[in-house]
Amino acid sequence: MLDGKKIVLGVSGGIAAYKAAALTSKLIQAGAEVKVIMTESAQKFVAPTTFQALSRQPVYRDTFNEQDPSQIQHIDVADWADLFLLAPATANIIGKLSGGIADDMLTTTLLATEVPVYLAPAMNVHMYSHPAVMKNMKQLDEWGFKFIEPGEGYLACGYVGKGRLEEPETIVQVLEEEHKKKQLLKGVKVLITAGPTREKIDPVRFFTNPSTGKMGYALARQASFFGADVTLVSGPVDLPTPGGVHRIDVTTAEEMYQQVLEHYHTSDLVIKSAAVADYRPRVTYDHKMKKSPGDYVVEMERTKDILMELGERKEHQYLIGFAAETQDVEDYGRQKLEKKNLDAIVVNNVSEKGAGFGHDTNVSLWLTKDGDKKAFPLMSKEELAKNILEESARHIKDGSS
Ligand code: CTP
Known about the structure:
Blueprint: E1 6-11, H1 17-29, E2 33-38, H2 42-45, H3 48-55, H4 73-80, E3 83-89, H5 91-99, H6 105-112, E4 117-121, H7 125-128, H8 131-142, E5 146-147, E6 151-154, E7 160-164, H9 168-181, E8 189-194, E9 199-202, E10 205-207, H10 214-225, E11 229-234, E12 246-249, H11 253-264, E13 269-272, E14 279-281, E15 300-302, H12 306-312, E16 318-325, H13 329-339, E17 344-349, E18 361-368, E19 373-380, H14 381-398
Parallel strand pairs: 1-2, 1-3, 3-4, 4-5, 8-11, 8-13, 11-12, 13-16, 16-17
Antiparallel strand pairs: 6-7, 9-10, 14-15, 17-18, 18-19
Helix pairs in contact: 1-3, 1-9, 4-6, 5-8, 10-14
Bound molecules: cytidine-5'-triphosphate.
């Protein structure tokens, strides 16, 4: 299942380092090529020769131990990898990584790599639940690092609880499943819109909405993870660009319209999760407006309904829209699906707790033009993004678009 996969295994200094030896062996048996990097403290638990013998590769320990003058070792190893696995990942390495510290071979390589990084934490139960460690893990999660959660049970420190390195067999299984998922949208060109738009009155004032872009960014991150070629047209948001995603920044609904149309023709799957302004001021002033006594009325005009136009111009694309409803969710959802000639719609029930703008979670209903219906209960936007993409991949492969 991991045939020919080039895996860099980072081993940091915890007692679970001994399990990393079995993990190396299992990865090799699954067909992977493995290069091991050890921290100085990891070497206090297991000898590098163990990993060398199991991986049949040199074990990397020192950034400055440059054997080949034609290469810079940590960059070379980072570029060689298809995947990076950190097992065990101690509280210390998690902290260093989330703080951008690069002071040894492992951390310099980790900062230099562009491939997916999986962390399998292992530490004392209280260390694992410490707010500093939690905060660091949350940060890494937001940046797209993947976690293979520790199991619960007897810990070497004598405590019983969460913090035990996941078993090597399970770690290999997780990687195999993730590898399978990466084939899901391989070669598919995905166009996603995210965030709000801003419609100016003058240089210092505009109309907008509270969209944070989290849903669209989760979709972009997951689509890229599923192997798609992703273009993200984004309104003004405060989020980092997910790895491997081509991001185009726009401000107004008109700019979003232009960019989306430019990329529509060559896209296979189009997901419109942006909260586009329906109206904009009829007049935008070049200079700041001065206040004067009495009320001020802004005349608004309609923006283009981008999704509607995409529906009208649809060729081969699988087109997905979003809608926000507070009542008769299914009826209103189906009406929008038909009116805009969509293949599917994700209707967010924003009257539910935890759904809608700014939340990390959503409650939604997936409806397709073929009559499929699936309720997605309260779940994280990342989880919802995965579900939407899995459904889309199934429909694209069935040729039902
Ligand atoms: N949309 C768009 N262009 C607009 C407005 C909306 O492309 N000018 C897209 C959004 O990206 C989203 C969907 O249309 O995918 C939302 O549809 P809309 O009809 O605006 O639904 P609601 O926001 O739920 O609005 P309403 O119920 O007020 O019609």
